[in-house]
Write a structure and sequence with these properties.
With 209 residues, the protein is an alpha/beta fold. It has 8 helices and 8 strands, in the order H-H-H-E-H-E-H-E-E-H-E-H-H-E-E-E. It has helices at residues 5-9, 11-20, 22-35, 53-56, 66-74, 109-119, 136-143, 159-169; strands spanning 42-45, 60-62, 78-80, 94-100, 120-131, 172-179, 194-195, 202-208.
């Protein structure tokens, strides 16, 4: 079952995070943009309120939470109700698919990756942005997850775990961008991006079909 309850009940807190952590948010967008294809038909899986889709120019999003879909629609995103494990799209429909801080809320990452693979065209790309479980921020989230209305039921993953699952699904040519090198409260400007992973708390992986 999709973990939508926190997003239905605490919508204002969700939106407030992006305002309070504006530079972290901008850093994440920058890192994703570096990995996002410049053209082609794309979708964000787990579009939320459209906070990433809008600045990244993605016009279609899948989202299980009704409250989040309403916000995304108000921001101009065409939304479809559904979950990552059962995508309501035909085979080879998209050039790329994006997931941002989505995998930690999935019931079945393996099935979700297989579904993303299915709906991608040959040579299409899956781009995933997530908090690395082994990073400083990832460890903090895990240690304090029971105090968070959003992360209580979340499952965090390391980069190696994500990489392994992507390769098992059939994805190839993985490339990485990382950012957010300080604690959230200490991030007072948009942070740079670096290739690879292991230093930044937010990692973006791009994988080809």
């Amino acid at each position: 079952m999709a973990k939508t309850e926190p997003f239905e009940k605490y919508t204002s807190q969700y939106e407030d995070w992006f305002e309070r952590n504006r530079f972290v948010y901008e850093s994440e967008i920058r890192a994703i943009r570096e990995q996002l294809p410049e053209r082609g038909q794309g979708i964000e899986i787990g579009v939320g309120s459209g906070r990433f889709a809008v600045p990244l120019g993605i016009r279609l999003g899948l989202e299980p939470s009704g409250r989040m879909r309403d916000l995304a629609q108000n921001r101009g995103i065409e939304t479809v109700a559904g979950v990552a494990e059962r995508l309501p799209f035909r085979d080879t429909q998209f050039d790329f698919a994006l997931m941002v801080t989505t995998i930690c809320f999935l019931d079945d990452v393996e099935t979700a990756f297989k579904e993303a693979y299915r709906v991608l065209r040959p040579a299409g790309h899956l781009i995933i942005g997530f908090v690395d479980k082994d990073s400083a921020l990832g460890r903090s989230y895990q240690q304090n997850k029971n105090e968070s209305v959003f992360y209580g039921e979340a499952i965090f993953y390391s980069v190696d775990e994500v990489n392994s699952q992507l390769k098992e699904t059939g994805f190839r040519n993985l490339s990485f961008t990382q950012t957010v090198f300080h604690k959230l409260a200490e991030t007072r400007e948009t942070e740079p991006t670096r290739e690879g992973y292991g230093e930044g708390s937010f990692v973006v992986v791009k994988a080809a079909k």
